[in-house]
Amino acid sequence: MNPDLPPQVDLAIIGGGINGAGLAALAAHSGLSVALLEKDDFASGTSSKSTKLIHGGIRYLELANFALVFEALHERSHLLRLAPHLVRPLAFLLPVYQGDKRPAWMLKMGLWLYDLLAGIHNIRRHQWFSAPETLAFAPNLRAEGLKGCGLYYDAQVNDARLVLENILSAEQAGAWCLNYHEVLAVKNEGGDQAELLLRDRSTGESRRLKASCLVNAAGPWANRVHSLLAPQGKPLVRPTRGSHLVVDQVLPDKALLITTRGDNRVIFVIPWRGYSLVGTTDLDDEGDPDKTAPTEEEIRYLLGEASRLFPGQSWDRAKVLAAFSGLRPLAWTEKGSASSVSREDRFLIEGKCVTIVGGKLTTYRAMARKALKACARILNRPLKPLPFSLPGAPQTPWEDFEKASLAQWPERYGIHPEQAAHLARLYGQKAQSVLELTLADPALKEKLDESRPEILAQVVYAVREEKAVHLGDVMLRRLEIGYTPARLGSAPEKASRLLAQLLHWDEPRRQKELADYQTFLFPRP
Ligand SMILES: Cc1cc2nc3c(=O)[nH]c(=O)nc-3n(C[C@H](O)[C@H](O)[C@H](O)COP(=O)(O)OP(=O)(O)OC[C@H]3O[C@@H](n4cnc5c(N)ncnc54)[C@H](O)[C@@H]3O)c2cc1C
């Protein structure tokens, strides 16, 4: 158990996904004493299993949800400025085919409205292209029946590192953020404070923590956490499962938005770390959130839809390098299909506890502000949210920062320009702290695998500065490379050997870490 954790705090947050992390950072920078408890690793829940988009959500226009789109488009522009190393503009193709349920005029109107709602915050105005022009962008796209396509812009995010940077920022402002600490019980009756029973999952130790205000930011686990407070309580979230496939890259620098044929949904094909992500599904899932995994039926569905658009390639099961699932913690309703459930956020106050449900990664800052307001009511204290920056955010515009990094780091640290670019993207201005490790110990410049840019220093940095405890924390969420185990060469072996030295693992423990880290990727029997 972390010895520095005090016996009581103003605010205790259960859950270290984007909502818990965003609120912890905002509340700590606004002067509250904050403890955040996460039962696994930060972002190991839904917040690292998203489609990794910071977007207005063009499909919500169809549901006339203009307020949601407007808020998200504004947040998109703030995030592009606040975290330019983690949030990058991305071009989207929106093809239209003969017989599509949404005809070209409807898509054109939607794109026009999307630009209008973004206003001065727009990345770039949309354009419309004929079928031959579309095929010039995407030669492998199905030509038969193609009427043309729209081209518009949204943004792509490194979701797990966005969570991490909020956690680190919260700690800079004095918060205690503990991963692998599970909240087992909560007392929220009478008295001035709620009382939590915590268990350190690494040591098995337990202890109590008192808090004047408690936030349930447990995402798809929110019903479970709520039942600790109110055993007979009604469900607060309706978890819906979304699954993604990782396949070899289909389109290098543009994303694609597809209208599915059978159920008229929208799915994406997104360029991601040299691969393509295909997703997502949207299915009610009442099962154990710890065991969420894609089914073979979902995999078949996504392969089928993608194969319709890219007929020249084989889209059989062997194409799937990995598949993973997350659960959307949507506000509870009994009505409607999974994909029709509102994505809007809600803040439910009971006694000293606020439960956060719904929302999106994109709007996490707005959600943190609303949650802080609810906490201020419970604490009966005026709280003014103060602006703060994320630890990796460069002090100069991104283009200048990237140019300077590429010009200076290869010579100063003896690395390849490709590695300088990779480190700048992943860590922003903190990349130099990673590289400084190699000045003290040049052996840390060794690559994890000859085919990849990652170096050993990143593993050391993940443990010393980024709270990584297991191999999975490093491979999946600090370096974000573990999604394609078969393509990693020596990386898992080298990373696990270094972690064994740093964290004093014996050989059986190292082997267990190697076996454990990829278990969530594939459907389990
Ligand atoms: C498939 C999919 C795609 C998506 N794509 C996008 C997208 O592209 N863009 C976008 O803006 N949004 C997207 N979203 C929505 C977005 O990802 C979620 O709204 C958001 O990540 C939810 O974050 P959270 O913090 O509420 O939950 P989580 O990230 O799940 O965090 C909750 C945490 O609580 C912890 N916890 C649970 N119980 C306890 C306990 N007892 N003690 C301590 N800790 C506990 C869990 O371990 C977990 O880490 C997507 C969602 C899904 C499912």
| Count of the separate structural domains | 3
**Which structural class best describes the helix and strand composition?**
alpha+beta
Q: Provide the gyration radius in Å.
A: 23 Å
Query: Percent of residues in beta strands?
Result: 15-25%
In CATH terms, the superfamily of the largest domain is D-Amino Acid Oxidase, subunit A, domain 2
| Record field, number of beta strands | 18
The first-level CATH class name of the largest domain? Alpha Beta
- Largest β sheet strand count, sense and barrel closure: 10 strands, mixed
CATH architecture of the largest domain: 2-Layer Sandwich
Number of helices: 15
Silhouette: globular
Terminal CA distance: 35 Å
Mean pLDDT: 93
Q: Helix fraction?
A: 25-40%
Q: Detail the poorly predicted runs.
A: none
What is the CATH third-level topology name of the largest domain?
D-Amino Acid Oxidase, Chain A, domain 2
Bound molecules: flavin-adenine dinucleotide
